[in-house]
């Protein structure tokens, strides 16, 4: 059972465009992380959001945690070719589970 | 090294053979995870080690899969009698804290397993 659904699954855009990736669940998470993975490498953490409604900015990337802590979004402004990669959200459940649950992933391709 | 090290980076094996994948976490990290990733998709949780606690094995897909962590450091994931559906990238990650402490996971580059 996949607890975290990401959309879209694949996104191909031109450099300079804006985009939003969504991470949704019916479960409540105590915190949520976003990772980016490039081919042949492991995922690398971009941000952790903890508080419902929290918004964090990392240069051109804006991350938001839903008020109910069930969903999150990643918005990229003026995408660059270097943003290409697989974006993964990952949630920590507050039910005592110790494992980080990863989303289905969004593959982003930014063309020049 | 400074990061998580995994070996082998690539493994091709025949159906029915056993394979061992090794993970050397970042020194001092008490939490260690194994995930499986198929065709560049999301990560499937396999097993989690935290200090001296009993591991969380709830993600292991069958009894052909097992893992151990010796001395709280190096971990080995063993797949017995491999099947074609076991083909995937196996990722290891370590963390200074458990996930309840929102610890960042540091991933290795993965071991790509191909079962012919």
What does this structure look like?
The complex is a heterodimer of chains A (112) and B (116). With 112 residues, chain A is mainly beta. Chain A contains no helices and eleven strands. The radius of gyration of chain A is 13 Å and the shape is globular. The N and C termini of chain A lie far apart (37 Å). The model of chain A has no long low-confidence stretch (mean pLDDT 91). Chain B has 116 residues and is mainly β. Chain B has one domain (5-115): Sandwich (Immunoglobulin-like), CATH 2.60.40.10. Chain B is built from no helices and ten strands. In chain B, strands 2, 4, 5, 8, 9 and 10 form a six-stranded mixed beta sheet that branches. Chain B has a four-stranded antiparallel beta sheet with strand order 1-3-7-6, with no helix packed on it. The A-B interface holds A 2, 4, 6, 30-31, 33, 35, 39-45, 48, 50, 86, 88, 90, 92, 97-105, 107 and B 4, 33, 35, 40-45, 48, 50, 56, 58-59, 91, 93, 98-100, 102, 104-110.
Give short descriptive properties of this protein:
heterodimer, A: 112 residues, mainly beta, Immunoglobulin-like, 6-stranded mixed β-sheet, 5-stranded antiparallel β-sheet, 11 strands, 55% strand, globular, B: 116 residues, 4-stranded antiparallel β-sheet
Task: State the order of secondary-structure elements of chain A, H for helix, E for strand.
Answer: EEEEEEEEEEE
Under CATH, the homologous superfamily of chain A reads Immunoglobulins
Separation, N- and C-terminal Cα atoms of chain B: 32 Å
The CATH topology of chain A comes to Immunoglobulin-like
Poorly predicted runs of chain B are none
CATH class of chain B equals Mainly Beta
Number of strands of chain A: 11
Topology:
The complex is a heterodimer of chains A (112) and B (116).
Chain A: E1 5-7, E2 10-14, E3 19-24, E4 29-37, E5 44-49, E6 55-58, E7 61-65, E8 71-76, E9 85-93, E10 100-102, E11 106-111
Parallel strand pairs in A: 2-11
Antiparallel strand pairs in A: 1-3, 3-8, 4-5, 4-9, 6-7, 7-8, 9-10, 9-11
Chain B: E1 5-7, E2 10-13, E3 19-24, E4 31-37, E5 43-50, E6 65-69, E7 75-79, E8 88-95, E9 106-107, E10 111-115
């Amino acid at each position: 059972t996949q607890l975290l659904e990401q959309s879209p699954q694949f996104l191909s855009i031109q450099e300079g465009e804006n985009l939003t990736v969504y991470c949704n669940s019916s479960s409540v998470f105590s915190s949520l992380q976003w990772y980016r993975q490039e081919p042949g490498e492991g995922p690398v953490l971009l941000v952790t959001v903890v508080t419902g409604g929290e918004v964090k900015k990392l240069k051109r990337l804006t991350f938001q945690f839903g008020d109910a802590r069930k969903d999150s979004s990643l918005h990229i402004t003026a995408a660059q070719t270097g943003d290409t990669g697989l974006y993964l959200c990952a949630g920590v459940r507050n039910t005592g589970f110790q494992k980080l649950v990863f989303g289905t992933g969004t593959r982003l391709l930014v063309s020049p | 090294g400074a990061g998580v090290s995994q070996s082998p980076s690539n493994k091709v094996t025949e159906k029915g053979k056993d394979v061992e994948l090794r993970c050397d976490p970042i020194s001092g990290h008490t939490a260690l995870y194994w995930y499986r990733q198929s065709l560049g998709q999301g990560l499937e949780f396999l097993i989690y080690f935290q200090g001296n606690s009993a591991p969380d094995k709830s993600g292991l897909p069958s009894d052909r899969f097992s893992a151990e962590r010796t001395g709280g450091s190096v971990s080995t994931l063993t797949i017995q009698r491999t099947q074609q559906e076991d083909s995937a990238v196996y990722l290891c990650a370590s963390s200074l804290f458990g996930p309840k402490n929102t610890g960042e996971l540091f991933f290795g580059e993965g071991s790509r397993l191909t079962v012919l």
